TrEMBL record, chain A:
CDD domains, per database record: ABC_TM1139_LivF_branched (cd03224)
InterPro entries attached to this UniProt entry: AAA+_ATPase, ABC_branched_ATPase_LivF/BraG, ABC_transporter-like_ATP-bd, ABC_transporter-like_CS, BCAA_Transport_ATP-bd_LivF, P-loop_NTPase
Pfam assignment, any one: ABC_tran
Species of origin: Streptomyces shenzhenensis
Gene Ontology MF terms in the entry: ATP binding; ATP hydrolysis activity; branched-chain amino acid transmembrane transporter activity
Protein name per UniProt: ABC transporter ATP-binding protein
UniProtKB/TrEMBL annotation, chain B:
Protein name: Branched-chain amino acid ABC transporter permease
Keyword Zinc: no
Topology term for the membrane: Multi-pass membrane protein
Alphabetized GO MF terms: branched-chain amino acid transmembrane transporter activity
Keywords: Cell membrane, Membrane, Transmembrane, Transmembrane helix
Organism: Streptomyces shenzhenensis
GO cellular component: plasma membrane
Length: 238, 608
């Protein structure tokens, strides 16, 4: 069986500077895979390339058996790959409900959309309470919830989350991580980019450690969590 | 919000946070002065203001107000009513659901501004204050008293921000100025109006009818002002008067009611507009009416492109031109190289289709650009259109547009035997040529309003707004940015083309010089954009009102002459500084420009 997402020797450059220098990894259906690493390791660049916002200079991306190399951003969503971008990128002046509806932009099954909006409200009750409020009035953590809920509205086969815990309070971060765990339990396939290695690794099936554009270490979440070099570099232990 | 109703005991230096007026006059005295001043202003309008009828409007008559006096009468009555309402007079408190003092201040300014403008205009036109009769002095004094009274009413002063005493002297000055400005703003602040309880729907509809009737009256009056002084007086009264109604909370309540019956309001507004030609005795102002409608309709079309999709188009007038030329070419005009005479419905289709094609042709290569670049390219396209139309005269290019002479003698429309060039008598009213076109144009406007509403609320409308707000996120939602932008561009272009087909017949002649980037006569690209921005981006009524104002002001104030564009520039800068969301704000836009609005910086004073 082939994996849902296969990335092979992916290279991405900004002008002459290569940000991703040939990385390979796989995501199987139903798995949570995480990319961890410091700033500038190329994690966000990888996600942006997968969702078509950037063009690779080399390598292969196969999603659901199809090459994504030449697919424009707006069609990637139609194929079942949803991206919750870094910095959340919600539409601040629209209501929460309108944000969610935009997430379902490519769908036309009204009852299904209504059901999924309800599902997002069940997952994040705060969104339901404030459905008619402008999204910009939400707190950072609530906006992150909205960004995730919105990405789910396209019924993705693979959900890509870019730094969902960035800039959040510890309590809010725990909530977000608990939600990711819940989504995993529901069977959602997730590709998670995180700086918070501890949290990401403890719920991931597989993890890849990135450093300046290359994958330096791969393994299951538990293996990496207990790997000595990872503990030293990312978990703040001597 | 704290409510303090007592005036300070000692009228010494006003202390921050306490309620106190400008001169430290006790509140009851101030209120009495304001109300009394309003009443006296009303009385003064029944007296003679000057001895000679040389000043336009004949202000020499006792017992019957005329011209500018009528405006002072209205403003004075408004002041008196708000004054009485702020006393809590039974039956009048409903006039000021958001507290009366802010409204009273603006109403008194309306009376003061109009009265003093009149008195000064009389003195300068006739050469000196000796030309004033007692009525004029009374009006000046009464309105001055009203304005002083209203402005010494106590209000909640804002707390000055703490400032480090070690700061430089310049910082101190800046700080003091900022605080002064805050105080001025606070003195005009109004409260939040109480929401209107649900009335029986017939009552709400009656209210809507009354609002529309008021709107029609104000508009008809403005169009009908026959001399400069009256129009300026009208602007002063209407401007401050509207501000007063706004501060009183009446505007908010009115919009709540109209929002509950959107469709009725929309239909009612069109009925009111259709009544306009019946209020006129000759075709003179119907001409103005039809030009305003053309201008406003095109502005509304531009609002789809600019207001909804956020694409800055500086050459939009070219699409109006394409539509007009297309209709002119198939109209059977002798200067058209095509010897055809299409029926109007076919000409409309040709015009809209031609503009659509041009919209797509221009949009396809340029919409990949963002922001400023798109603006530059569209600006260039607008000029290319004009210059091309100038050159397709048979000598510098193929003979198509008859060059700078344009396509002349475009015949009047004849739809189902109804001759648009002739006068018709309808139920005792004479409907002239321009009134005929006014009705036709109104239908086109209705079509544009319908397209705007339907598309704005639809899936494509949400996509436009999403693209405008955050293009990256919109792509991540699966929105094809290029395609939805091209749709916006094409829809906007064909709506302008639609208006162009009527314009060609109204003006008889289509020449390249009608479609400039900027010029003294609207519609041109700069004025169209100004109408949208001034009126309110993303709204329907905004561009309609903005276009009316932008058409009427240069039309009425001919004496501005060469300074017109300068005056507009200044007015636009001021508006952008103080009301960037436009006269009619879009709910979403208001959030964008006043993000601090959630936590008001200044407290407002509640009325006694």
């Amino acid at each position: 069986m082939t994996a849902l997402l296969e990335v092979e020797d992916l290279r991405v450059a900004y002008g002459k500077i290569e940000a991703v220098k040939g990385i390979s990894f796989k995501v199987e259906a139903g798995e949570v895979v995480t990319l961890i690493g410091t700033n500038g390791a190329g994690k966000t660049t990888t996600l942006r390339t997968l969702s078509g916002l950037l063009r690779p200079v080399g390598g292969q991306i196969r999603f659901n058996g199809r090459s994504l190399k030449k697919v424009p951003a707006h069609q990637v969503v139609a194929l079942g790959l949803a991206h919750s971008p870094e910095g959340r990128h919600i539409f601040p002046r629209m209501t929460i409900e309108d944000n969610l509806r935009l997430g379902a932009f490519l769908r036309s099954d009204r009852p299904g959309i209504e059901k999924d909006i309800q599902r997002a409200y069940d997952l994040f009750p705060i969104l339901g309470e404030r459905s008619k409020q402008a999204a910009g009035t939400l707190s950072g953590g609530e906006q992150q919830m909205l960004a995730m809920g919105r990405a789910l509205m396209s019924q993705p086969k693979l959900l890509m989350l870019d730094e969902p815990s960035m800039g959040l309070s510890p309590i809010m971060m725990q909530k977000i991580m608990a939600t990711i765990a819940e989504l995993k339990a529901q069977g959602t396939t997730i590709l998670l980019v995180e700086q918070n290695a501890q949290a990401a690794l403890s719920l991931a099936d597989h993890g890849h450690v990135m450093e300046v554009g290359t994958v330096v270490l791969s393994g299951t979440g538990q293996e990496l969590l207990h790997d000595e070099s990872v503990r030293k570099a990312y978990l703040g232990e001597d | 919000m704290t409510t303090q109703t007592t005036a300070p005991e000692t009228p010494s230096a006003p202390v921050a946070g306490r309620t106190s007026g400008a001169l430290g006059m006790p509140a009851p005295v101030a209120r009495a002065l304001a109300t009394g001043g309003g009443v006296l202003s009303v009385v003064s309008t029944f007296l003679a203001w000057t001895w000679t009828s040389e000043f336009p409007g004949d202000l020499t008559v006792y017992g019957y107000p005329g011209g500018l006096q009528v405006l002072v009468l209205i403003a004075g009555a408004l002041t008196a009513l708000f004054g009485l309402s702020s006393y809590g007079v039974k039956g009048l408190t409903g006039l000021t659901p958001a507290g009366g003092d802010g409204a009273l201040r603006f109403a008194s300014l309306a009376a003061f501004g109009t009265a003093w403008y009149t008195v000064i205009a009389i003195s300068s036109t006739l050469g000196g204050v000796v030309n004033l009769e007692p009525g004029g002095y009374l009006a000046a004094a009464a309105s001055l008293i009203a304005v002083l009274g209203a402005h010494t009413l106590p209000f909640e002063r804002p707390e000055p921000d703490p400032l480090d005493p070690d700061e430089s002297a310049w910082e101190h000055i800046k700080h003091r100025l900022a605080h002064g400005w805050q105080t001025v703003k606070a003195s005009y602040a109004g409260g939040t109006p109480r929401p209107v309880g649900a009335l029986p729907s017939y009552a709400e509809i009656l209210i809507i009818v009354a609002i529309l009737a008021l709107g029609l009256t104000v508009f008809t009056y403005g169009i009908g002002t026959s001399y400069d002084e009256l129009f300026i007086g009208f602007l002063i009264t209407a401007g401050f008067g509207f501000a007063a109604l706004n501060k009183a909370g009446l505007v908010a309540q009115a919009s709540q009611i109209t929002a509950r019956h959107q469709n009725i309001t929309m239909v009612g507004a069109f009925v009111a507009a259709a009544l306009f030609p019946f209020t006129q005795t000759d075709d003179q102002y119907a001409t103005v009416g039809v030009y305003i409608l053309i201008f406003a309709t095109v502005a509304l079309g531009l609002n789809i492109v600019v207001g909804l999709a956020g694409l800055l188009d500086l050459g939009y007038v070219a699409f109006l031109g394409v539509g007009a030329y297309a209709a002119a070419l198939v109209s059977g005009s002798p200067s058209s190289p095509f010897d055809v005479h299409f029926p109007f419905w076919a000409a409309v289709l040709v015009g809209a289709a031609a503009s659509l094609v041009f919209g797509v042709l221009i949009g396809a290569p340029t919409l990949r650009l963002r922001g400023d670049y798109l603006a530059i390219v569209t600006l260039g396209f607008g000029e290319i259109f004009r210059i091309t139309a100038n050159n397709l005269d048979g000598t510098s290019g193929p003979d198509l547009t008859n060059g700078s002479n344009g396509i002349a003698s475009i015949p009047n429309l004849d739809i189902l035997g109804f001759d648009f060039g002739a006068q018709h008598d309808v139920g005792g009213f004479t409907i002239g040529r321009f009134a005929n076109y006014f009705f036709l144009m109104l239908i086109i406007t209705a079509v544009v309003v319908l397209v705007f509403r339907r598309s704005g609320d639809s899936r494509i409308g949400r996509a436009w707004v999403a693209i405008r707000e955050d293009e990256t996120a919109a792509h991540a939602m699966g929105i094809n940015g290029f395609r939805v932008k091209l749709i916006a561009f094409a829809v906007g272009a064909s709506l302008a083309g639609l208006a162009g087909t009527v314009q060609a017949h109204v003006t008889y002649t289509v020449t390249p010089e009608q479609y400039l980037f900027a010029g003294p006569i609207p519609p041109n690209s700069a004025f169209l954009l100004a109408a949208v921005v001034l009126g309110g981006m993303g709204t329907i009524s905004g561009p309609l009102i903005g276009a009316s104002l932008l058409f009427l002001i240069p039309n009425k104030l001919q004496f501005l002459g060469d300074y017109q564009l300068l005056a507009f520039g200044v007015a636009l800068i001021l508006l952008m500084r103080f009301r960037p969301e436009g006269l009619i704000p879009n709910r979403r836009r208001q959030l964008e420009f006043h993000e601090e609005a959630e936590a008001p910086a200044v407290l407002t004073k509640a009325g006694a």
